[in-house]
Design a protein that fits this description.
The chain is an alpha/beta fold. The chain has helices at about 5-25, 145-150, 160-165, 170-175, 185-200, 215-225, 250-265, 275-280, 285-290, 320-325, 345-360, 390, 395-400, 405-425, 465-480; strands at about 30, 35, 40, 45-50, 75, 105-110, 120-125, 155, 205-215, 235-240, 330-335, 365-370, 445-450, 455-460. An eleven-stranded mixed beta sheet has the order 3-4-6-8-7-9-10-11-12-13-14, sandwiched between helices. A three-stranded mixed beta sheet has the order 1-2-5, with no helix packed on it. Its EC number is 3.1.1.-.
Length: about 475
Amino acid sequence: MPRPILPSLLVLALTTFACAAHAATGPVVTTESGKVQGAVDKGVASWKGIPFAAPPVGDLRWRAPQPAAAWSGVREATAYGHDCMQLPFPSDAAPLGTPPAEDCLYVNVWRPAKAKATAKLPVIVWIYGGGFVNGGSSPPTYAGAALAKQGVVLVSFNYRLGRFGFFAHPQLTRQANGEPLGNYAYMDQIAALQWVKRNVAAFGGDASNVTIIGESAGGMSVNALLTSPQAQGLFAKAVVLSGGDGKSADPGLAGVEQIGVNFAQAKGIAADDPQALDKLRALPAEQVVDGMNLANRAPQNPATYSGPFADGKVAVETGAAFASGQFAKVPVMIGATSADIGGKTGFMVAGARSLASRLAAQGVPVYEYRFSYVADSIGKTGAQHASDIPYFFDTVDVKYGDAVTKKDVAMGRAMSAYLVNFAKKGDPNGRKLPAWPRYAGDKDVIMDFAADGKPAALRDPWGAEIDAATAAATVAAGAQ
């Protein structure tokens, strides 16, 4: 007996509808490793959790990032990948949105939904902070949708942290056989920027117009990338939020190796153990973290953790590189918050002023800012460290929720517009925005995102005080 035609047609129709529904769930882009399907929400297309390198686990722990494996079919890319392994810090500026894991080298992309693949939009790449021991790309405050609506492609990514991101050991050095070692966090950042260069055109971005932006440890990372021999040509502009002046104490490779030996010994692995490296790589990830985060990163004796150091290949001594002119001379936006770490004459505020002066003196287009605005709901004076981030991202509504005010939103609109303008043309100025002059040491004019909620260009009111404190510190250091 022949099968009824109507049920067969119904099955075919339902199957067709299901396939069409699946196809309509999000835009598909072809990357170098395979196709990824994202999502569209409120006029913005996004793709999350795209691998830009192989998972740095097992034998790849403490190795330079390796190529991501290709996949067949279409990979769903609608959720963040794991943030990198750490002990989360509850009081951080942007709490994580995913559980941390070693398998964490993922990138996220946002663009205007209607933009074509041939749009060649400016690209902004975000590098999070967290003292190199905390942080990730998943916090909602760091989402790129609001910036994408202004006509850019926003990219964020994860990089290894703590002892996963910075580690050396004599056996690692011997095994490396000339391969870069130690600064794995910076290697991840460079690998992510290389991924952007190779793939962002498929998302509608312009690989020749990339702006890197980072805050705190991310700002320090931008300083490092500006001077890294391996990062040259990967970006065209840079934004440093609370990144200091580029100077840092450096124990050198031998010192970092000894710190690695100290950590191994703390885990019962002798310095002369021929299997030390295998045993270190076999440690559970939680034991490598060993309870360290921003809250309890106090110096130990003997030391068992060291952050970035100059290896001469990936990272150089940034202070010396800036002083000698050995850096990427691209337009730079730089600044700090008014109540940043160290106060008005300390590390962040004075560091931003010092680096702005140094770069401007070498002909680099520099735009310096100070963030003095405090959200109405906070009820305090002085803008704390990292409080400028949601304004540059235009995510103050996410940060402050129902407590957000029209004044908060207006400041976010202005600051994000300055950032987008800078990404588009290397100059933050644009229609309807107060003029932001290029920084020059003799004029000393900065943009103050002022406490009254209005951006204002003015001669740095703290300039003389900061310079006097810096001079006194230099004299005291020379006398020691």
